[in-house]
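TASK: fixed-backbone design
INPUT:
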């Protein structure tokens, strides 16, 4: 019987299979409530809705088409305004945050992101994420400020000497921290959050101002030659970079240095003009040189300098590294820093304060003793416990010391409160000036001929000068004394560059020399040029030199070997600048050539920048600015899409003039010195986003 039942089809037992769950549909808004059984019979749409609900899908479309055909325009407008909100859907709001950020990562245009942030509050909050704007900074090549870590927060947790002094000055009878309630100690304020969005907006706007215009803050005009009532000083030398002889007491700019706060211009009439980089106003005229000024350098101070934050960051890193040796260094430097013989005891307190020599400053005696001790040579190689050392047994240098010199002519200070100007020229004296007061602090004698070139080391009160007396001299500009005289060149020293403890000097004797300023030793003699050397550049690893033989040579700073012989110019190579990846050269033939610094040293680009000699050349990661004797200042922009070292012409930064002597710029300011209408014209351009200065003349 069971077999018969199994064979009979009617007796087959089917087990129900539950279908797998399906994702719930996305919630949608509905203009009408679902039809219910208890719908009012008096509702005029009740029967129509019941009839519409009973139709098949194909008939439903026909039903709707028939209704729309019978509607008036006003009714169609009502239907449209009712249906449109139902069809809207915020896909970014409905997506998980990870997927929303993934979708937004395909957008490279910052204007698109800015417009998208105005759609709704949700989109605004989503597009305010720091990751998106940090990515935009990377795409557009905008560098981050020093001191910002990978998470976008500022690391200001280093304990400084001021904190240690404050702790040491606490009275012994005061209760210790252990006896105080933890609730009585307020928590330290959180460090300020770094906004990548604001940083990108600033960089993007600044770059746009460079490309499209900027603001002319001031235009200063001065007679090129003095009036007949003035007594002309000695004739300046006739080997001006432009190749033209200068008349007595001519107001030709010979050198320039610029940072975020000041623009310093040295003139052939023995004057030094100091302009405000913020307003373009002539703030100081430094008078004291007896003849033409041929070299100036600007040392940043810690009072109000925007870039002083990086100096403070480097100084705090150094303090942290030297924390275990504070007591020992105080023992070494105590007597020296308190000895009045190390500096002029008749020096006014304001000038001692400007140099950082006053021990009663609020910054604390320990830090001032460390900063005021300039006998760094003997102590640089002294063994210190717990101090990292290099392979040669020397004490490891902080990162600030290994920073190459800036093409703008400015350098980081050693913690002194005021900005300083260091200058030299035909009167053979090196002078140190306080920018705030305009006073000359030191007049340092030693050279027996014109000072032709000058550099100041980063983070140390050391200035290096090259002269026509064939020597290179190292000066302590904080104490006002000569430290080293480096002899070896057989002819005039025309150019030099510094990095860390080494100096590279170029001479008319066709050689470059690499010096150790702490020992005074000549490390290498670079031979290869067969004519006078006019320009050198040094980044700590490589040395580039150019001269009258129309060639550029690249040298290994560690071994002194010649790495490459670069050709392409047909006249004097008078402008050089090294970057981490490329070398830019400018010559008297009007050409600007960009070379790669990889092993091949290939020519990346040749620019016919000017019709005559290139008088100025400066570049950063965004732009290349050149000036020439043809009276033009041209702006080129590096195109990341075209490849490394490829730049394209953008525009001229100023109206054509008779000739341009000097040009220098920072991220926000550009100073142009030219000849126009028989006068020396100094233009101060600003590219700051918030700048609203008006054009004015003086």
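OUTPUT:
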């Amino acid at each position: 019987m069971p077999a018969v039942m199994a064979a009979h089809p009617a007796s087959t037992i089917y087990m129900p299979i539950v279908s797998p769950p399906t994702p719930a549909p996305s919630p949608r808004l509905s203009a009408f409530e679902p039809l219910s059984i208890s719908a009012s019979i008096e509702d005029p749409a009740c029967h129509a809705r019941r009839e519409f609900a009973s139709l098949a899908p194909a008939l439903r479309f026909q039903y709707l088409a028939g209704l729309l055909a019978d509607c008036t325009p006003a009714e169609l407008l009502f239907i449209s305004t009712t249906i449109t909100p139902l069809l809207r859907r915020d896909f970014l709001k409905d997506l998980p945050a990870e997927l929303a950020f993934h979708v937004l990562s395909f957008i490279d245009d910052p204007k698109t992101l800015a417009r998208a942030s105005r759609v709704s509050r949700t989109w605004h909050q989503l597009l305010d994420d720091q990751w998106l704007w940090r990515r935009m900074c990377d795409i557009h090549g905008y560098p981050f400020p020093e001191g910002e870590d990978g998470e976008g927060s500022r690391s200001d947790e280093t304990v400084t000497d001021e904190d240690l002094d404050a702790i040491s000055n606490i009275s012994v009878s005061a209760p210790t921290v252990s006896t105080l309630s933890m609730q009585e100690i307020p928590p330290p304020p959180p460090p300020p959050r770094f906004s990548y969005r604001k940083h990108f907006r600033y960089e993007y706007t600044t770059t746009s101002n460079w490309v499209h215009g900027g603001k002319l803050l001031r235009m200063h005009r001065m007679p090129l030659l003095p009036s007949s009532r003035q007594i002309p000083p000695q004739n300046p030398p006739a080997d001006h970079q432009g190749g033209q002889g200068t008349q007595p007491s001519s107001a030709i700019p010979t050198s320039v240095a610029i940072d975020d706060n000041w623009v310093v211009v040295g003139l052939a009439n023995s004057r030094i003009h100091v302009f405000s980089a913020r307003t373009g106003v002539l703030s100081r005229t430094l008078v004291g040189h007896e003849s033409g000024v041929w070299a100036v350098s600007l040392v940043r101070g810690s009072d109000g300098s925007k870039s002083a934050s990086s100096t403070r960051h480097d100084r705090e890193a150094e303090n942290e590294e030297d924390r275990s040796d504070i007591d020992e260094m105080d023992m070494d430097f105590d007597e020296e820093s308190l000895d009045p013989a190390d500096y002029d005891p008749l020096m006014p307190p304001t000038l001692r304060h400007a140099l950082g020599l006053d021990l009663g400053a609020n910054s604390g005696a320990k830090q001032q003793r460390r900063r005021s001790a300039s006998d760094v040579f003997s102590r640089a190689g002294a063994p210190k416990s717990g101090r990292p050392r290099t392979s040669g047994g020397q004490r490891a240098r902080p990162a600030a010391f290994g920073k190459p010199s800036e093409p703008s002519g400015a350098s980081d200070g050693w913690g002194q409160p005021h900005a300083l100007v260091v200058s030299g020229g035909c009167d053979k004296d090196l002078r140190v000036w306080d920018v705030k007061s305009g006073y000359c602090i030191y007049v340092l004698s030693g050279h027996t001929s014109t000072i032709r070139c000058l550099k100041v080391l980063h983070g140390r009160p050391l200035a290096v000068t090259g002269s026509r007396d064939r020597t290179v001299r190292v000066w302590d500009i904080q104490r006002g004394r000569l430290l080293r005289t480096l002899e070896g060149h057989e002819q005039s020293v025309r150019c030099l560059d510094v990095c860390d403890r080494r100096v590279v000097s170029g001479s008319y004797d066709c050689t470059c020399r690499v010096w150790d300023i702490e020992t005074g030793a000549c490390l290498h003699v670079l031979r290869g040029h067969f004519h006078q050397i006019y320009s050198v550049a040094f980044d700590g690893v490589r040395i580039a030199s150019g001269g009258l033989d129309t060639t550029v040579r690249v040298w290994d700073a560690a071994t002194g070997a010649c790495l490459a012989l670069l050709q392409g110019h047909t006249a004097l190579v008078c402008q050089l600048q090294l970057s981490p990846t490329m070398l830019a050269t400018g010559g008297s033939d009007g050409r600007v050539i960009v070379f790669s610094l990889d092993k091949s040293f290939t020519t990346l680009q040749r620019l016919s920048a000017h019709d005559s000699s290139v008088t100025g050349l400066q570049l950063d990661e965004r732009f290349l600015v050149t000036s020439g004797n043809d009276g033009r200042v041209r702006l080129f922009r590096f195109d990341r899409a075209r490849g490394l070292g490829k730049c394209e012409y953008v525009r001229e930064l100023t109206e054509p003039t008779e000739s341009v002597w000097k040009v220098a710029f920072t991220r926000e300011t550009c100073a142009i010195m030219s000849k126009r209408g028989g006068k020396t014209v100094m233009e101060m351009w600003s590219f700051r986003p918030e700048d609203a200065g008006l054009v004015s003349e003086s």
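COMMENT: The chain has a mean pLDDT of 77.
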